[in-house]
Amino acid sequence: MLRRRGHRVVFIVEESFAGTLEAKGFEERTMRLAPPPTEAEEPGQFWKDFIRDTAPVFRKSTFDQLGEFILPTWQALVDGARYVDERLTEILEEIAPDVVVEDNVVGFPAIPASGRPWVRIVSCNPLEVKDPALPPTFSGLPLDDRGEWEAFRTEYARQVGELQESFSAFCTECGAPALPELELIHESPWLNLTLYPDELDYPRERPLGPRWHNLQTSVRATDDAWTPPEPDGRALVYLSLGSLGSADVPLMKQLVAELADTPHRFVVSKGPQHAEYELADNMIGAEFLPQTSVLPYVEAVITHGGNNTTTECMWFGKPMLVLPIFWDQHDNAQRVDEQGYGVRLRTYDRDGGELAAALSHVLSDEQLRRRCAVAGERLRLRPGTTVAADLIESLAWLSSGGRT
Q: What is the tens place of the pLDDT at every residue in 150-188?
């Protein structure tokens, strides 16, 4: 959208993704988040391997995941930010942008240290921006029961505190401000964007300031076209656990087996391990699917609860069955359930028939379906992509002194 308005847009991408954005007509600059491997790597392979190796942890409680998944994830992200800082400084000096837009959960000190206006995008669940009246981030705990909040917060601080202090010191060494307590990314003094529909958002005790704007959603319109199967009287349901969640082959096999005996049809995003399992007769699918082109044709979505899929389902007015695996997926699952836009289910160790029964419920509950449809109608009236482009363009205009 910014490019259509005549602006120069440069993407800084991890080296294994080189050429991906260039193929879409953008400029690219590449960076590495770790030393180069001895052999050629697939795009995003580090995180695919990381998720695969830590998959057993996902069967544990969110409390237990703090030490066994959340801390190692933060460590890997912080290590990447440390490794890339010098390269990012070089890129920013070479490009000399009027504004920098950062979408990450760990800060890159080179960005605030550059002195250039920059935008922070919070593209995960908004609990990332903490509030004492809201459940702790990554907990998946309910809003109306604070019984476990304090214990979770205390354990999070115990696990992450030392890493955060070290990274904050690194930020100041690089010329960036120190980080707030237990935070791993700065708030931008210029512009901060969240994307979460009002229907799911949280009632904050401390409202976000004037430099914060909620885009509600940010749904791409660049996916390839998709042709649905011919209607045959059965409901069509979309199953996607994301590229990382679908790498858990035993879980995907279990879901296929559970859904094979239901009276519905399914479109399955099989993911990077697509060759490791087969779909049932009532299913079609592929390694990757153009999700925003598929969603208009389905009646419900079975999802891991990633923020992207959650907000896209809200945009298209589709009820969700949420099977959270890691990170903010637990928070999204809880919020979808407690706000009445779908059902949160246990991802592992479910009772027999639980998934099929929940699916039958969301397909037959007319009030739920209407609630979802009304939310989608509202969101589509004001695309978040347009709002974001307006805000970023305004900041760039001020920064450049009015140059186009």
A: 999 999 999 999 999 999 999 999 999 999 999 999 999
- With contact defined as beta carbons under 8 Å apart, do 219 and 384 qualify? yes
Contact 358, 343 (CB under 8 A): yes
- Supply the pTM of this predicted model: 0.93
330 or 252, higher pLDDT: 330
What is the predicted pLDDT for the residue at 54?
74
- Is residue 320 within 8 Å of 300, Cβ to Cβ? yes
How many helices and strands in the chain, by DSSP H and E? 13, 12
For residue 119, the cross-strand partners are 101, 191
Helix (H, G, I), strand (E, B) or coil at 245: helix
Nearest to 238 by CA among 251, 228, 248, 253: 228
b/e 335-350 (16+ beta carbons within 10 angstroms → b): bbbebebbbbbebeee
Residues with Cβ within 8 Å of 208's Cβ and at least 6 positions away in sequence, in order, are 129, 192, 194
